[in-house]
Amino acid sequence: MRQEELELLLDDMSLHEKIYQLLQLPGTYYDGTVTTTGDNRDDSFSRDCVGQAGSVIGVCGAKEMKKIQDQIMESQPHHIPAVFMLDVVNGFRTIFPIPLAQGASFEPELSGRCARAAGKEAAVSGVQVTFAPMVDLVRDARWGRVMESTGEDPYLNSRFAEAMVTGFQGDDPGSPYSLAACVKHFAAYGAPTAGREYHAVDMSDRELHEYYLPAYQAAIDAGSELVMTAFNTLNGIPASGNTHLLREILRKEMGFEGVLIADYAALEDMIYHGFAENREAAARLALTAGVDIDMVTTIYSNELPRLVQEGKIEEKLIDEAVMRILQLKNRLGLFENPYKEADEREEQEVILCEEHRILAKEAAEKSFVLLKNEENLLPIADTGKKIALIGPYVNEKNIYGAWSFLGDSQDAVTIQEGVEKVYQQNLLTYAKGSPMLDESEEAKIMVEGFYHEKENRGNEQKLLEEALALAEEADVVVLALGEHFQQTGEGASRADITLPQPQMNLFREIKKTNKKVAVILFSGRPLDIRELAEEADAILEVWMPGTEGGTAIAETLAGIHNPSGKLSMSFPWCVGQVPVFYNQPSTGKPYHDGEKSGRFRSRYLDIPNGPLYPFGYGKSYTVFEYLDYYITSEILRKEGSITAGVTIKNTGEHEGTETVQLYIQDCFASVVRPVKELKGFQKIKLKPGEEQEVSFAITEPMLRFWKSEGIKDSEAGEFKVYIGTDSNCETALGFYLE
Ligand code: GLC
Q: What are phi and psi of 227, to 5 degrees?
C-alpha cells in the first residue's frame, strides 16, 4: 500500500480499532501450536481484543498461523492482517550455538548466515518478526542471560548486531524468507545490580553511551524494524515508561523510526516497580514514553479508550503508534500477502535440512575456545589410544541453551553419537559418572513450566565406580561436564557460578587415577573453574553448541577441526571478582598482578586483579608467532590514516585459524579512558610454516569517545597500539594524534 492509503485507512478506523492494533496477544488465545515465553498473566481479554489484536506472539506452524490470520482478518473491521512474532534467537528447529558462543567465533558473517537460516525456517512456519538480536553488553557472569549476548565489548557486539539484523532481514524484511528483526532489550538490561535478574540498572549517561548503546545503534543503522524495551529501570525509571530514554535518546538521538514493543507484560511491571500507581497510569506513562505495542497485557486495550475520552491522553499519540505498526505490516507486504512465506510443504523441506545442519556444525566448531592444553594432550588422534568418555554430558541431548524452545533436543547429536562417527569403536568406553545436578541444585531449576526429567537418585556410587573402572583401563579420560542448560537464560542468575557439586566430585575422583584428563565444558556463561584450570590437563569450552554439537566436539577432539574461538566475555578468577572486563579504566594507584608493591594499590588482598581467562583469549592446537610489528607513522592527522601491522607465522604442526586483535589505548584524556579498547580484528588461516602480514588502518574517528559534556569526539594526544592474540597482549606501538 502507498502511504496515502495507509493514512486513509487510519482515518477510517475507530478509536477501539486503533487501540487493538497496539495489543499483542499470546497465541494461547487462539487454537494452534503455541509457546508462551513468560509467566501467563491472569489478564482476560475481551472477544473483540482477541478478534482484532494487531499482533500475535508465540505461534509457529504454517497451518496454525494461517488459521489464526484468517480468524483475525475476518473479524477485523478493515481486515487488517496481524503480524506474527516469536523468539528466534539462535535457531528455529536447527539450533546454532548460543549467541555468547557465536561471539567467541569473532566471525559476525557466520552469525549472519545462522540468522538467515533460522529466519528461513521460521518464515516458512509463519513467523514474520523475530525478537532478536539481543545485544545487551554483559560483564557480570552471575546474570543468566549473558548466554544471549555476544559479550563484553561494544565494538564486537556492534559487528554481530549488524550481521544478525542483516541476516534476518536480508535487503528488506518483506523479501522472501526474511523476518523483521527486533533488537533488544533497550536499554542496558545486561547491567543489573549484583547480577540479579530484573534488578535496577544505574549508570551515568556517559557510561550508557560509551558501552551499552553502540550495539543498539549498530542494529538500528542496519535497519532493525523493531526495538524492544527492557524490564529494568534505568536510573530509577522503568525502561517502558522512560520518556528520556525512548523519545530523547532512542528516537531523536539514535534516529530509530520503527516500532517500539514492550517486553513481556513490562507495562504491568511498572506497577510493581512502584512507578505506575495503577493500570491507567501504566497505560498513560508507556504511551507518553513512546511504547507502541503492549505485549500480552490488557493495559492499553482496557485503559486507553477512557484516557482519550477523559482527555488525559492525546489520540494523536495513539495514531502515531498505529501508523508505525501499519507501516511495519506494509513493509512486510502483509496487506498483499498476509501469510508471507508460511507454507506447509516448504516447512518439510527447509526445516532441519542438511544445509542447515552443516552450518550448525561449522558455527559450533568455530565457537569452541581451547582454554588449556598441557603437553598438547589434545587433539587425541585416532591412533589406538583407549579413550574413556565420562560425565553427564557424554550422552546429553539438551545442549541448545535457554532460548531454543522451538528446537527438539532429540535432533541433537551428542558427544557419544559424534565420536562414534570419528573414532574406532573398540577404543571408546562411556560412563555417565555422576548426576548432572545434586538434589538441591535440581530443585532450584524445577520451577513452573521449567521441568525436565528428574535425575534417578540412589545410584550415585554405582555411577562413580563404573566411571573409575573405565578410567583405570583407559589411556586418556575425556570428561564432559557443565551447567544444566536451565541454570542459564532468563530468570537464572546464580551467585555461585561453579560447576554442579556432583560433577566436581567426579572430577576429583577421576584425577586420583592419575590419568590425563581433558574436560569438555558446557556452559551458558563464564564459570568459576579455578580448580579445573589447576588440575585438568586440557579444557575445551563448548558453551551450548546446538544441534550438531556432538559432531563438532568429536571432530575437534580428533583434530579434524582445530579450535579457533576467542572469549567474548572474560572468565572471572572467582565470582567475587565480578563484574570483570578487559576494557576497564586505569586507576590512580594502578597495580599489575605479580608486581611487588605497597599496600596502597588498586588490588585485592586475596585474589589477582586479572580474570582467570581474559577477553579475546583462546588457544590453538598449533602455535602462532607475532613478528615484525610496525606502524607507518607516529603522527596521525585528523583527516589522515596510518597503518599498524604485524606478521603472523604458524610455527606449529597443525593448520589453524588465528584471530588477530587490534587494541588502542588513549593514554591521556579529559575523561579517564580504558587501558585498552578493541578497534579491529581479522581472522587468518595458516598452514604449518606459513606466514602472513596483517594490517589495520587507524583513523581519527576510531578514537572518538563520549566526553563528560555529552558529545562524542577525539582529543589530541598520545595513543598506544596493541596487536595480539588476546586482550592481555603487551607489545605496544605508539602514535600521536594531532
Ligand atoms: C521475555 C524476554 C524477551 C522475549 C519476550 C518474548 O520475557 O525478556 O527477551 O523476547 O519475553 O518472548
A: -130, 140
Beta strands in 306-407 (DSSP E): 369-373, 387-390
Q: How many CB atoms lie within 10 A of CB 361?
A: 23
Q: pLDDT for 35-76, tens place per residue?
A: 445 554 555 677 778 889 999 999 989 999 999 999 999 999
Mean pLDDT for the stretch of residues 562-571 = 98
2-26 b/e (C-beta count within 10 Å ≥ 16 → b)? eeeebeebbeebeeebbbbbbbbbb
Task: Return the amino acid letter for 330.
Answer: N
Cα 228 to ligand 1 centroid, rounded to whole Å: 9
- How many of the other CB atoms lie within 10 Å of CB of 246? 24
118-159 pLDDT, tens digit per residue, is: 999 999 999 999 999 999 999 999 999 999 999 999 999 999
Q: Which pLDDT tens digit goes with each residue over 374-419?
A: 999 999 987 789 999 999 999 999 999 999 989 999 999 999 999 9
pTM of the full predicted structure?
0.97
Three cell numbers written together for 271 = 506497577
For 169-207, b where at least 16 C-beta lie within 10 A, e where not — what string?
A: bbeebbeebbbbbbbbbbbbbbbbeebebbbbbebeeee
Catalytic residue among 263, 269, 537, 666: 263
Instruction: Report the greatest alpha carbon distance in the chain.
Output: 82
CA distance 381 to 378: 8
User: Ligand 1: distance of its center to the CA of 38 in Å?
Assistant: 7
Asked if residue 552 lies in contact with residue 545, where contact means CB atoms within 8 angstroms, the answer is: yes
pLDDT digits (tens, 9 = 90+) for 702-717: 999 999 888 999 999 9
Burial degree of 529 (CB within 10 A; 0-12, 13-18, 19+)? buried
| Best mutation site among 39, 98, 131, 168 for ligand 1 pocket (most ligand atoms within 8 Å of CB) | 131
How far apart (Å, rounded) are the C-alpha atoms in residues 82 and 57? 10
